[in-house]
Amino acid sequence: MDIMIKPIVTEKATQLTEQLNRYTFRVSLNANKYQIKSLVEKLYGVKVVNVNTLVVRGKNKSRWTKSGLLRGKTTAWKKAFITVGEGETIDFYSNI
Predict the structure, then answer these.
(1) What is the pTM assigned to this prediction?
(2) Is the pLDDT of residue 94 over 80?
(3) How many Cβ atoms from other residues are within 10 Å of residue 73's Cβ?
(4) Are residues 72 and 12 in contact, defined by beta-carbon separation less than 8 angstroms?
(5) What is the CATH number of the domain that holds 14?
(6) DSSP reduced 3-state for 72
(7) Which of 9, 41, 39 is nearest to 25 (CA)?
(8) Measuring CA to CA, which residue among 33, 46, 45, 40 is closest to residue 86?
(9) How many domains does the chain have?
């Protein structure tokens, strides 16, 4: 099974990184904490202390078009908060 992992770089996520040494990732919906931990340690070469996950539910969306009202729903996704060891950092921009 392939696990998708993508960093979330927002103002709130950056504040978490600066204050608590915690990084935020968007991960596959079926990934568990152990898989996420091993993947982050392998990709970024850091010691992961803690992994917290939450499922962000899909939102209802609607818009008016020429043909009438279109209704739909965005997909649900999983967010992971990764706490790394003291003094360790993850550089998201090193491989650009």
Answers:
(1) 0.85
(2) no
(3) 11
(4) no
(5) 3.30.70.330
(6) strand
(7) 9
(8) 46
(9) 1
